[in-house]
Amino acid sequence: MSYTFQGSAVDWITASGPDEGLVDVYLDGSSSSASHVSATRLTQQLVFSATGLRSGKHTFMAVKASGDVMRTDVIRYTFHERGWPGRAGGLGPASPGAEIPCHARRLPGLLGHRSR
User: Fold this and answer.
1) Alpha-carbon distance 91 to 83, whole Å?
2) Full strand arrangement of the beta sheet holding 2-7
3) Which of 24, 49, 64, 93 is the most buried (most CB within 10 A)?
4) What are the tens digits of pLDDT across the range 60-90?
5) Where are the domains of the chain?
6) Side-chain half-sphere CA neighbours of 75 within 13 A
């Protein structure tokens, strides 16, 4: 799943559960990993957050590294518009688990993944 936004901060909010796994997270090409595994299903969990980014265009990408599924509830970002500093925007459904449009791609050397 890949999402490009204009802003200075981004949060990835998603479900965690026993069928989730590790996710490789890329922000502007720099990588880190996130886990959204838990014993029971939990929705609206903050799995990844980045603040203090230079204001401008950024690309957030998540690639499933393990587990059966990878879900996304919300990608929330902060952007600055003239007269409206610190407004929040984002991509996501009104209810947890709803489908959102995203672009999935297979990266060389990483496990296959499925995006929801």
Assistant:
1) 22
2) 2-7, 56-64, 22-27, 30-35
3) 64
4) 999 989 988 888 888 888 876 554 444 555 5
5) 2-91
6) 21
